[in-house]
Specification:
- The complex is a heterodimer.
- Chain A is mainly α.
- In chain A, 70% of the residues lie in helices and 0% in strands.
- Chain B has 13 helices and two strands.
- Chain B has three domains: 102 residues, no CATH class; 98 residues, no CATH class; 65 residues, Arc Repressor Mutant, subunit A, CATH 1.10.10.10.
- Classes of the chains: A mainly alpha, B mainly alpha.
- Chains A and B meet through helix 1, helix 2 and helix 3 of A and helix 2, helix 4, strand 1, helix 5 and helix 9 of B.
């Protein structure tokens, strides 16, 4: 018996269905679906953690509510909080770092300098001529960009020749101050102030030096002296 | 001091009688805590974030079914200790959580791309929808193998899902009318239909895959061995290697229409090569 066209159509449908079934299987195999869960694993984890147990966080909230629900509990909580505050303050005072006194960080302005022939003659009278010469050589650089670097060795030479040269002492202190070396500047500025006690400019720059090195007592004493009427 | 918190078994037993709403709420809160504990610690948690209320209700239902014997208020109480009850509770929560995650993962698989024999790339869920002949679904009037799958899938979804799916897809009842008949909101029907369609697709997928006929495939393989030349090459590429028409055409350096014709001829030759047309 020869099967009819309906039989072939049915065969073809079954063939197509089997083909589709295989393609669906392959699509499912290659699809990334995500983690599957095993109830036994979950149950073990849940039983071990026991989130409804006595140690649960809800018990803490109940305990706290119970504690502050009556006056003795409230007083106890307030006392404990007060004690904690006092202890915190004490610990804070002991451990908090107190910063060092602030010092003047900025370099002082460069004083004005004008060569004074009269003063030069006078200078010549009270200081050695070689020292005066070196001082004038140093101050000849005044106004140049590298004045401090170029004048410093000449000023040192002028002082070496004659330590009584108050102007050389003062300007050496000034260039050291502007170079950020306040500790080194204090000595020549003190010498200048000692040699010419009436010169308030010398003392003003010495005050700068004291403030920068944190010599507050000396700075206060010098300030008092400067504030005194002449 | 406030009243002592009630244990889980006390809450469960309270529900056997005339429990008030506070007891039920507290009972649900405890269950939710367990569900959230798992959800927050498992990588799968993000999949089921939106299912927490449903999971809680499912745990309540399962505990009722497993631990609540029929009878009066006294016999409907759980006789064991709170530790025993809690252990049941944890196991039930774990089981519901795993079922929900696994269902979500399976629903995701319906989005997998599938390449048909014609070379079209489609989503698996849409392919399954095409296989279901909704106009006659549930009536056994379509193709017997697929009808059986539809029947099995419909039997596996809930009664409400089954009723609404058939009403909407087979009978063409508007969603508004379904909502009116069941006394629910239109939005509820829309959301439920989307869910029900997913559950049905999964059930149908299982039935469809299970309906594979190993004997039929073996007979086709035997019949195909009698093919020769291009017919054998085209049938092998399609049936054995699952290539698309375009891929086969490229492989054999033929026109796509020619491959289609050759494949149809090869199918007929295989059919003729089998006794009784390969159907038995």
């Amino acid at each position: 018996m020869t099967p009819g066209p309906d039989a072939f159509a049915e065969f073809s449908r079954r063939l197509d269905a089997e083909d589709m079934r295989e393609r669906v299987r392959r699509a499912l195999d290659s699809a990334t679906t995500g983690p599957m869960e095993d109830p036994a694993d979950l149950s073990r984890a849940l039983e071990a953690a026991d989130p409804l147990g006595e140690g649960g966080d809800r018990r803490w909230t109940v305990a706290i509510r119970d504690l502050v629900g009556a006056w003795p509990g409230r007083v106890a909580v307030a006392t404990a909080l007060g004690a904690a505050l006092v202890a915190g303050l004490i610990v804070g005072r002991v451990t908090t770092h107190i910063p060092a006194p602030a010092v003047v960080a900025q370099a002082p302005p460069l004083p004005a300098y004008r060569p004074q022939p009269d003063r030069g003659l006078a200078l010549g009278e009270i200081t050695a001529p070689a020292s005066a010469q070196k001082f004038r050589e140093a101050m000849a650089r005044y106004g140049e960009a590298d004045f401090a670097q170029r004048a410093m060795p000449l000023l040192r030479e002028a002082i070496a020749v004659d330590p009584r040269n108050d102007q050389a002492q003062f300007w050496l202190g000034v260039v050291l101050l502007r170079d950020g070396r306040a500790a080194d500047a204090a000595a020549p500025l003190e010498a200048a102030a000692r040699l010419a006690p009436a010169d308030r400019t010398y003392k003003g720059y010495l005050l700068y030096a004291y403030l920068q090195i944190g010599a507050l007592q000396r700075a206060q004493a010098l300030q008092q002296e400067l504030l005194k009427p002449r | 001091m406030g009243p002592r918190p009630r244990s889980e078994v006390e809450l469960f037993n309270a529900l056997a009688g005339t429990a008030d709403q506070a007891d039920l709420d507290e009972y649900r809160t405890r269950i939710r805590k367990c569900v959230l504990w798992l959800l927050g610690r498992r990588p799968s948690g993000e999949l089921v974030v939106g299912d927490v209320p449903d999971m809680v209700e499912e745990v309540v239902t399962r505990l009722e079914a497993h631990l609540r014997p029929p009878g009066d208020e006294l016999t409907r109480r759980f006789a064991g200790s709170n530790e025993q009850f809690r252990r049941y509770l944890y196991r039930t929560v774990s089981s519901v959580y795993a079922d929900t995650v696994n269902l979500r993962v399976r629903l995701r698989s319906l989005d997998a791309p599938i390449v048909t024999s014609d070379g079209d790339e489609r989503v698996l869920g849409d392919v399954l929808d095409d296989l279901v002949e909704w106009p006659t679904a549930g009536e056994g009037l379509g193709r017997p193998d697929l009808d059986a799958g539809v029947q099995r899938a419909l039997a596996r979804v809930s009664e409400r899902c089954r009723r609404w799916l058939l009403a909407f897809h087979r009978d063409g009842t508007p969603i508004k009318e379904i909502a009116r008949q069941d006394g629910v909101r239109v939005n509820n029907v829309e959301v439920a239909l989307t869910r029900c369609r997913g559950y049905f697709r999964l059930a149908f997928l299982d039935a469809f895959l299970a309906a594979g006929d190993e004997r039929f495939r073996a007979r086709v393989a035997a019949g195909s061995r009698r093919l020769s030349g291009l017919h054998a090459a085209v049938f092998r590429a399609s049936w054995t290697e699952r290539r698309t028409l375009a891929e086969t055409a490229t492989l054999l350096r033929l026109e796509r229409d020619k491959v289609k014709t050759l494949l149809a001829e090869a199918k007929e030759q295989v059919w003729r090569a089998l006794p009784e047309g390969g159907l038995e």
